[in-house]
Amino acid sequence: MASEKSTKIGLHNLAPAPGSHRARRRLGRGPGSGLGKTSGKGHKGSMARAGHGGPGGGKPGFEGGQMPLTRRIPKRGFTNPFHVEHQVVRLNDLAKLPAGAEVTSESLAEAGLIHGNKGPAKILANGEITQAVTVRGVKMSAGARAKIEAAGGRVEA
Predict the structure, then answer these.
(1) What is the four-CA torsion angle of 136, 137, 141, 143, rounded to 10 degrees?
(2) Residue 155 · residue 135 · CB < 8 Å
(3) pLDDT digit string, tens, across residues 83-111
(4) How far is residue 18's CA from residue 152's CA, in Å, rounded to a whole number?
(5) Is the pTM value of this prediction over 0.90?
(6) Backbone φ and ψ of 134, nearest 5°
(7) In whole angstroms, how large is the CA radius of gyration of the chain?
(8) CB-CB contact of 97 with 134 (8 Å)
């Protein structure tokens, strides 16, 4: 077996497997091609238009001429574009951090309690805390602040 010479694969001798590659359809190249004039789309209708029909559906939200759902439902209220959604951290989750640890948004992300890029964290007073921790630069409720200070911890701005 060792006597056979094996060729090294490189960019110079790569080729697709026989029969695996088929030439693409060249649309609109005259009547001799069989796909000239209407380019296989037939005459008029939504399937002949650009942006309609085909794999994956037609116009998003188009309901065949029926009034679309987005126009049927009433519009009221207001969405504040500056609303900030905080990531909630419970007090008993802080037990996952080592004793005497400094609680920052970075340390909470490293411990897996919050996602680093999904908004700021806020500590709520759910559960109890037994170890003293130093909280720096994380929002918290008044109840959580009281429980952390009662456990011998500190809260810094």
Answers:
(1) 10
(2) yes
(3) 999 999 999 998 888 888 899 999 999 99
(4) 74
(5) no
(6) -105, 120
(7) 32
(8) no
The two beta strands, 154-156 and 134-136, are parallel
The b-or-e profile of 53-64 (16+ CB within 10 A means b, else e) is eeeeeeeeeeee
Q: Which of 13, 12, 42, 37 is nearest to 27 (CA)?
A: 37
Which residues lie below 8 Å from residue 29, measured CB to CB, with a gap of 6+? Answer: 35, 36
Report how far residue 68's alpha carbon sits from residue 87's, in angstroms, rounded to the nearest whole number: 36
Q: How many CA atoms lie within 13 A of 20 on its CB side?
A: 4
Distance CA 6, CA 13 (A): 13
Q: Name all contacts of 136-141 with Cβ < 8 Å and 24+ positions apart.
A: 136/102, 136/103, 136/104, 137/104, 137/105, 138/89, 138/103, 138/104, 138/105, 138/108, 139/86
**Which H helix or E strand runs over 154?**
strand 154-156
**Proportion of the chain above pLDDT 70, given as a percent:** 96
Checking DSSP bridges between strand 121-124 and strand 87-90, what pairing results, if any? Answer: parallel
